[in-house]
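FAQ: What does the model actually see?

It sees only this:
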Amino acid sequence: MRRQRYVFSRRGERLRAEVWAEPGGDVPKHFHPSQEERFEVLEGNVRFRVGRIERLVGPGERVVAPPGVPHAFENTGTRVARLIVEVEPALSLQSFLEEAAALARAGKYTRGGLPKQPRAVLELAELIDRYRGVTVMTSPPRVLQRLLIPPLARIERRLRGRKAHR
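And it is asked to produce this:
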């Protein structure tokens, strides 16, 4: 429940999203191993963190997150913020965002991104594992992610397989 809406378009290897972020709407800290992400604020005020640099960005200003650099943003204003976000190469980022949003709409995790029930832990681990080449969350720490996410994802895949055969 990140409190935002997206409209996607794609031109070749560039994914473009128009984003409307409600006050307090945010994207948690993450990085893309091989994609550059560019943001342009059209309306509102958005606080960005790219690497160790944090700055408040207003209309007409841009921010770039190079591949491998952790970044996050939050609408710190009192009105809806509107942004244009471009990611290149697109890879499967749109699918990741749509699936993560579907889990949120289904009430699988809290606003802070924590799973609400044991099955949601498995579903989120499977999603993170499947899209690890596109988006990597910075929390929990990478060492824990490497230890825990692959086996949890395998359990979820087995459970889905059993359900499909019933």
